[in-house]
Amino acid sequence: MMVNWVSQMLDAVRAPETAIRYRNAATAISMIPVIQLLIVPIQMALDQHGVGLPASILVMLLVTASMLVANHFNENTSSIYGTHLKGPVSVLSAFSCILISSWSNTNLLSVTTD
Amino acid sequence: MSFGFVVSFVMLNKDHVSNASDVPRIAGVFGNLPGPFLSMNFSNIVLVVATILSYAGTYLFALGSCKLDERARGRYWKQMTDVEKIAHRSWPTLQSTRRSSRVGKLLTNIVTTGSMVSLDTSLIQTPSRWTFVVQTAPLWIPLFLAIILGVPVYLTTKYDMPLETFCFIFLWIAAVGLQRFVKSWKRLELRTQWRLALAVSLNPVLVTALLCSLYFWVKSALTGREIGDMLVDLKHHRSWSETIVSLVGGGQFTRNVGAGDLANALLDAGIVSLGFKMFEYRRELWTSFAIIFATCLIFSTINVFVNVIFAVAIGLQPQDALAFCARNVTIALGVPAVQHLSGSVTMMSTLVTFSGLLFQMTGDFLFSWFRINDRVVAQSTIISSDTETGLEAEHPRTDEGKIIAAGITAGINAAAMGTSHLIERDSRCSAYSALSMTIFGVMTVALTAIPAIKDELQLLAWQ
């Protein structure tokens, strides 16, 4: 019985669409700390020099520029992007909205209850 | 009721509401928004008119620029030739070819499977219970983790980051699922207007914001803690660089990392991922870069001055009026812009959120109203720079101008929330929106940093 359940579950996970969805989500989650590795030093440098710009915007432009340069020298870059990164990037973009929701907890509540 | 509407907006900015006087001040601007239960006053009319003018102006300017660009590049005449060719094209057309190929596939399937019975079984697969469980896993995994990991950690250590993280993810996914369910709810199939209204009002950001507030109220009632204290624990720092500096300086992990800080990392990743999206649509962006740049340059200059004039006309305090100059800029870039002018960051972030939510709630309707065919149709016709074929067949050039204009309009008026909404709906406008949002925001920051412009704006606000 148990073996049957496990087998059915594995079959469901192995279904092509589901497998791709989970792989994309896993890659997207693993990209978050990697992206922070780029952002944090730049943000520190900006803070140190009193520049009030968010590092994430600069890294976004940097990523586009790097990809364009890489694609200029190696045309396979776009196909590699399409194969491995496009799905996770879509997941990340769509779920960035969660931050906006998480900001929903403000001092207003404390203000109104004071 | 109007206060409740305001609350959800103001709550989007944990960092910027510092005292009780902020609440009625912001409520005064949004207090009587137009709606079936609410009355209009002068300030609301001005605010709504300003928003509509901003949307219409940006769209028309960008569309006009696209038309001019098409003419300048000679596309216009080429397009006319193409249309003529299409009109005289011999049968079968592209669409009918595709249909006949599908029919061919069906026939092949019948032949290979042997009978119609076997065809039915091959096409209709009853999803098993496990398939359902696996497909809905994103919903129940966070809930499961919140129960088996978040609650014990909180009860033993009083550290609420895991619990809140999983709870918020669960609430977000539930809110997204709820809206999708309503959009395809068969009971309302015949009442499309009702279904549309319900889907719009169940905007995931709005619903999650309300549910998160509810979460804190319930938690406060259960634990007896002040909501203010809980909110301090939710998000400790503005960015991860501050968190790391604090941790390296000997700070405790539990005192420096909350669920809001983790969400910050996710937003950073989301913004950076827009860079990849721009690479994906590099050719389209390159050909329309001049249009995007010109529109952003003109409208950032106009917006900075006109918005302050509008705010003064409403009768706002000078600090609030100055916040209006960055009301369409994404919050990350709006903060430095308003700080340059010594304006109210609270008001600015509320206005930005209002603009973003407005687009999220009305965007789909506007796209269908203007007949903008912006969605990526099928996997086989990926509409990006890496696809050489299929683009013109699925999306005629006449749509290109509309798509560019719509993307620019969303980027300039709804910033990050607008762009994320476009990505969610698989829109081809998302890359244009991301680039416009960035250029427009950077230009606004640059303009407000120029001493002459800064002095002029402050003069306008204080007069």
Describe the overall structure.
The complex is a heterodimer of chains A (114) and B (463). Chain A has 114 residues and is mainly α. Chain A has 6 helices and no strands. Chain A has helices spanning 2-14, 16-48, 55-73, 76-95, 97-102, 107-113. In chain A, helix 2 (16-48) crosses helix 4. The longest helix of chain A is centred in the N-terminal third of the chain and has 33 residues, at 16-48. The radius of gyration of chain A is 20 Å and the shape is elongated. Mean pLDDT of chain B is 77; it is low at 1-16, 32-40, 87-101, 114-123, 378-382 and 388-395. In chain B, helix 1 packs across helix 2, helix 3 packs across helix 21 (397-424) and helix 18 runs parallel beside helix 22 (430-449). The longest helix of chain B is centred in the first third of the chain and has 32 residues, at 42-73. Chain B contains 23 helices and no strands. Chain B is mainly α and 463 residues long. Chains A and B meet through helix 1, helix 2, helix 3, helix 4 and helix 5 of A and helix 1, helix 7, helix 9, helix 11 and helix 12 of B.
